[in-house]
């Protein structure tokens, strides 16, 4: 089969561009140590339930109307199952997973991140309105994904 000279040029440019893209992707992924955005706190995913403070997940008051929420996302739930906070409280969420990738989303807030095994993902939100806030897993994590939720009750 005979290829025209311009077809050969375009095929070489396309193949060269693809090769350059793959090389740059590998350099970014391996040589530059690219990782999920966070403060890069990590723990052993096999020992999440034994590692403080994730061995006793829950709310811990750290200041006047400020709380740290240490949570674990696991197939197919969150620990703790429910939390209560006062109106106007600022909550610093610290979430990790012992098993697979999960999502952590609180609808109608700016909280939405991925929870990777062993990585401690963090975000902060101030709850100014009373009510029940649903926490959802928005990353497919298995057959029971649709029932993975918990609530925050703001009083």
Automatic annotation (TrEMBL):
Which GO molecular-function terms appear in the entry? copper ion binding; cytochrome-c oxidase activity
Q: Has keyword Metal-binding?
A: yes
Domain of life of the source: Bacteria
Record field: catalytic activity: 4 Fe(II)-[cytochrome c] + O2 + 8 H(+)(in) = 4 Fe(III)-[cytochrome c] + 2 H2O + 4 H(+)(out)
What InterPro entries does the record point to? Ba3_CcO_II_C, CcO_II-like_C, Copper_CuA, Cupredoxin, NosZ/Cyto_c_oxidase_sub2
Job of this protein: Subunits I and II form the functional core of the enzyme complex. Electrons originating in cytochrome c are transferred via heme a and Cu(A) to the binuclear center formed by heme a3 and Cu(B).
In Swiss-Prot or TrEMBL terms, this protein is called Cytochrome aa3 subunit 2
